[in-house]
Design a protein that fits this description.
The protein contains 19 helices and 2 strands. It is mainly α. Helix 1 packs antiparallel against helix 4. It is globular and about 70 Å long.
């Protein structure tokens, strides 16, 4: 076994361990600075791994390091760095254990990187459990908050249920094919089998997809999202909304393209994915309309975004996958910018209601501008990254209108309806920034004092700002990288 192929994962894990060890000799007043060590370690490990990457020899049993893996690993590392920057500014609210918070982010990141390269159901399960167990602890990190404990229990119950469903599905796939390797499973499907064995295999596929839907926050495993988003610490919520969702996506793409491509031409699988996508978009969009808690509102919008991700997957080709990869990157910077500003505001006000945004354009024009652009990007307003992401997904969907057995006409209609609905709840946030008097304005006027932005949060916001504008105006480089990552991904379809 060539361990150099997993040097990134090893380096990330060692970074987490080093943070825990450094905590023993770090004075309590300086522990928040350990986050800078974590960021430096992640950057160094990723740069070393990227420079030594050899695609020609990048495969071992259960793990492959191809273009898709490298793209998502870069995505995960970027997400973790931005989340750690957010955590540094969040650190004053953590009474103890800030080093453990940094370390757990690294351990969850290692699981995500393993997921990016998984080419067997064994590695898939190990990666999912490493991610999920890390988030079990992260969601309950503020143990003295009842809401945080409630969130962790709900996440634990739903996570355990989805894992059990997924394991049962993997068992059915192994029982019908005799292997857990994606390529071997794909080859076994070319051998004719009886109707009963075929049915068992299809049930296994559905159960595995159901378990992975938990990571996306898609129907029918979306119930945990709003409660966990609201109850978990803000950095954890941000990492769930970006990294965990992307991990679920890459695993779905790999299983569809590598494990059972023979099923993609069958009518039932695209229809199943279409139904999941349509219901997820409508559910998330409609439930977000009446939300006033910012984290909960973004939780429901995250569910809707999972529907758009599934819409790209329904295309079942390289164009749809490329569109999803670009959309996800734009979503990353938009959602992390929003959560970073919410963290600063909630620290100052002790609340997460939308009313805390009142007078933000006077108190901090810098944060008001970035939050406006982030929300506009999430809503799909040109020329920002979010617009191009949604446009690319819809363009891929329109390209499938004439396919036999296509469910695209009604799914595109649902997607467009979801975009219209999202304009209302997203611009409700913008309205509050510039014209909102606040929820309790009759009793107490909104604050007019200047609101300082912590240095680490400022760095994270500037990165997000340049990314949202840069990806919107100059998308060619990232689209090219996404195209290379998904090149010939579905070429093995019969």
């Amino acid at each position: 076994m060539d361990v150099t192929l997993i040097s990134l994962e090893i380096g990330i894990t060692l970074t987490g361990i080093i943070i825990l060890l450094a905590d023993l000799w770090t004075p309590s007043e300086n522990k928040a600075r350990l986050g800078w060590i974590a960021i430096g370690g992640l950057i160094a490990v990723f740069c070393y791994n990227f420079n030594t990457f050899d695609q020609a020899a990048a495969a071992i049993n259960g793990y492959s390091k191809d273009g898709l893996a490298v793209y998502f690993q870069g995505f995960f590392v970027m997400a973790a760095i931005l989340v750690i920057l957010l955590t540094i500014s969040y650190a004053p609210r953590v009474k103890s254990g800030i080093s453990e918070l940094y370390a757990l982010i690294c351990f969850a990141l290692a699981g995500m990187c393993f997921a990016a390269g998984a080419n067997s159901f064994t590695m898939l399960f190990v990666a999912v459990e490493l991610i999920t167990i890390s988030f079990y602890v992260l969601t309950s990190f503020e143990r003295r908050r009842l809401r945080s404990l409630e969130a962790s229990i709900k996440y634990l119950i739903m996570g355990a249920t989805s894992s059990a469903i997924m394991v049962f599905g993997i068992a059915l796939i192994y029982g019908t094919t005799g292997t857990l390797d994606f390529n071997e499973v794909s080859r076994s499907l070319l051998t004719p089998v009886g109707p009963s064995m075929q049915l068992l295999f299809q049930i296994g596929v559905i159960l595995v997809l159901g378990g992975l839907a938990f990571k996306l926050g898609a129907i029918p495993f979306q119930l945990w999202v709003p409660d966990v988003y609201q109850g978990a610490p803000i950095p954890v919520t941000a990492f769930l909304a970006s990294g965990s969702k992307a991990a679920g996506l890459v695993l779905i793409i790999r299983t569809l393209a590598e494990a059972y491509p023979a099923l993609l031409n069958q009518e039932w699988l695209p229809k199943l994915l279409s139904i999941m996508a349509g219901i997820t978009i409508l559910y998330g969009s409609l439930c977000a309309l009446r939300q006033r808690n910012l984290k909960r509102l973004l939780g429901y919008s995250s569910i809707a975004s999972a529907g758009y991700i599934l819409l790209g997957i329904v295309c079942l080709d390289n164009t749809g996958s490329q569109a999803v990869l670009f959309y996800l990157l734009g979503y990353l910077f938009g959602i992390l910018a929003a959560f970073t500003i919410i963290s600063v505001l909630s620290e100052e006000s002790g609340d997460e209601d939308i009313s805390i945004l009142a007078n933000l354009h006077h108190r901090s024009p810098f944060m008001a501008t970035i939050l406006t652009l982030a929300i506009a990007s999430l809503a799909g307003i040109p020329p920002l990254a979010g617009f191009l992401g949604k446009f690319a997904i819809l363009r891929a969907a329109f390209g499938k209108l004439n396919d036999q057995h296509s469910s695209m006409p009604w799914l595109i209609g649902v997607a467009l309806l979801g975009i219209v609905i999202s304009l209302y709840y997203y611009f409700k946030i913008i309205r509050e920034i510039y014209w909102g008097p606040g929820l309790y304005w009759k009793e107490k006027k909104p604050s007019t004092e200047a609101l300082p932005c912590p240095r680490s949060a400022e760095i994270a916001l500037l990165i997000c700002l340049f990314a949202l504008i840069g990806l919107g105006l100059f998308p060619e480089t990232i689209l090219s990288l996404a195209g290379e990552a998904t090149n010939n991904l579905f070429s093995s379809r019969p």
